[in-house]
Amino acid sequence: MDHGTMKHGAADAADGEHSTMDHSTMDHSTMDHSGMDPSAMDHTSMGHQPGASQDLPATAEPHEPIPAITPADRAAAFQDLDAHVLHGESINSYWSLDRLEAWNADEDGTGMAWEAKGWVGSDLNRLWLRSEGERAGGSTESADVEVLYGRAIARWWDAVAGVRHDFGFGGGPSRTYAALGVIGLAPYKFEVEATAYLGESGQVGLGAEAEYEMLFTNRLIGQWLVEGEAWSKDDPAVGIGSGLSKIEAGFRLRYEFHRQFAPYIGVVWERAYGGTADLRRAQSGDIDDTRIVAGVRIWF
To answer: How many domains does the chain have?
Structure first.
């Protein structure tokens, strides 16, 4: 409509002022604002789609049907598992001097201890080497080395089997044991080693070690350590008694100047039990020891 051609003033003059119209006499119930009767409109002829809230029957086809999955689709999504490489076959290695530390041993002067481990091999098969020992008063009190074959048995876990040899120092005899155990990462990131030993004359031993690391910063790291040993028979020649032999616990705080090099300080507590404690009482009278240590951790 062209409102510009309409003469509103003339209409007002002919029909009277708009303000004088009586709106109360108009029937608003059957008219909308456009002046049309809503009940007279045919909504079915307007072509509206069903509302979004209206549910379709369960048997109704979707507006855009999903094509059926074909064997070609499955072949593209899932490759042949026989050709998939589950484990890497490349040869790698890891060598670590976990502990190389010293302390003031009072009457015996300066003491020193070490613990080293390493492996070479693939993800499935590895050759493990482990060694630890202790010196005091200028002489080696204990030292051992283990050569183990490791096989991955689960995620983060290896089963190991091999030989352990304890060197005889201070006039004591050496000992050789068959070894069988596990190495792995337990829930909550506890590093665990547990090994059973079988020696001469039916001597059976069990050694276990657990470590946990706390990151104060990316480079300042605290390491908790607990380890222990138990033996089935007395072996006075090497200072071993039956039952629980010893427990060692410690905390070491290291700073990693480089990931492969980290000096540390810590405190270590050790105590002998059972027959081992009786043998130590007879020799020196001391069955427990607490010491402040300082050392370095290196790996490559």
So the answer is: 1
Q: Are strands 175-186 and 157-166 parallel, antiparallel or unpaired?
A: antiparallel
Question: Under a CB-based contact definition with an 8 Å cutoff, are residues 116 and 131 in contact?
Answer: yes
Domain assignment of residue 35, yes or no: no
> What would the pLDDT profile of 268-285 be if each residue is shown by its tens digit?
999 999 999 998 888 877
State the DSSP code for 167.
Answer: -
Cβ neighbours for 245, distance < 8 A, ≥ 6 positions apart? 228, 229, 230, 231, 272, 273, 274, 275, 276
Residue 285 domain flag: yes
CATH, residue 284: 2.40.160.40
Q: In angstroms, rounded to a whole number, what is the distance separating the alpha carbons of residues 288 and 279?
A: 13
pLDDT tens string 224-263? 999 999 999 999 988 899 999 999 999 999 999 998 999 9
- Residue span of the structural domain in which 209 resides: 92-299
Residue 54 lies in a domain: no
Distances 270 to 100, 159, 226, 246 between C-alpha atoms, Å: 17, 28, 10, 7
187: three-class secondary structure by DSSP: coil
Q: Does residue 42 sit within a domain?
A: no
